[in-house]
Each structure stands twice: as structure tokens, then as C-alpha cells.
Amino acid sequence: MAEHKIYSFAFGDIYDAYVAKAERKERTESEVRELIQWMTGYDDDGLDEVRADGTTMREFFEKAPALNPARELVTGSICGVKIQELENPLMKLIRQLDKVIDELAKGKAMEKIKRSNA
């Protein structure tokens, strides 16, 4: 079976789409960065590097310094797909990141998005 094409998309392009989505809903790029860093462990320099160097989504998650265990608390549906039912670990990571950005754009509080009270 062919690999899903999102795995080969440049992270920088996806990042730009996340920022645009957030900003359309009166949220900020710094909030998008905070969520990505919370989930993956990238620092500012590392995030800037993978945005600029053509890193693919697959490579972005493979290189992630410290995936946050709390990301497993990110459940629900994104694009009609239930995150908790995904078997492919990479697709699950991508959908979890999509979900937290979606929650940000919908106005959810940062503490709740990060599952701080879970």
C-alpha cells in the first residue's frame, strides 16, 4: 500500500497553514509555536530549523526531541477520523497536532488544549 502523501509534505508548509488558521480566528503564531513545542519538545531554534530546511512531516516527528506523553490525552475526531482509533503511529501524531491547532482556532483555553488538568 502506498504511503500517505502527508508524510512527505514539508513541515514548514503545514506550519504556515496552522498559523494562518489560528490567525483567522484571532489567535497568534506564538500560541501555535507553544502547542507544537509542548507536543514535540522542539525549542525555538529547532523549530525554526525544521521549518526552513524542508524537513518532511515524517522527519519532523522522527526528530522530535521529546514527544509529550500528555499528547495521548488528545482524542476526538479530526476530519471525520477518530484519533484514538488510528493504528499508524505517525498518522496519529499528525492528527493529534491537527486537533490541538483546531482547538486553538476554536478558542479553547491553552491549559485545556494541553490537557493540564487531566
Summarize the structure.
The protein has 118 residues and is mainly alpha-helical. The chain is built from six helices and two strands; from the N terminus they run H-H-H-H-E-E-H-H.
Provide an overview of this structure.
Helix 1 packs parallel to helix 5 (89-105). A hairpin with a 2-residue loop joins strand 1 and strand 2. By secondary structure, this protein is mostly helical. 25% of the residues are buried. Strands 1-2 form a two-stranded antiparallel ribbon. The model has no long low-confidence stretch (mean pLDDT 94). It has six helices and two strands. Pfam families: DUF2200. This is DUF2200 domain-containing protein.
Topology:
Elements: H1 11-24, H2 29-40, H3 44-52, H4 57-62, E1 77-78, E2 81-82, H5 89-105, H6 110-113
Antiparallel strand pairs: 1-2
Helix pairs in contact: 1-5, 2-5
Characterize the largest beta sheet: strand count, sense, and whether it forms a barrel: 2 strands, antiparallel
Low-confidence stretches: none
The CATH superfamily title:
uncharacterized protein sp1917 domain
Percent of sequence in beta strands: under 5%
Order of helices and strands: HHHHEEHH
Overall pLDDT confidence: 94
Strand order of the largest sheet: 1-2
CATH class: Mainly Alpha
InterPro entries: SP1917_dom_sf, UCP033199
Pfam families: DUF2200
Protein name: DUF2200 domain-containing protein
Organism: Corynebacterium phoceense
Keywords:
118 residues; mainly alpha; 6 helices; 53% helix
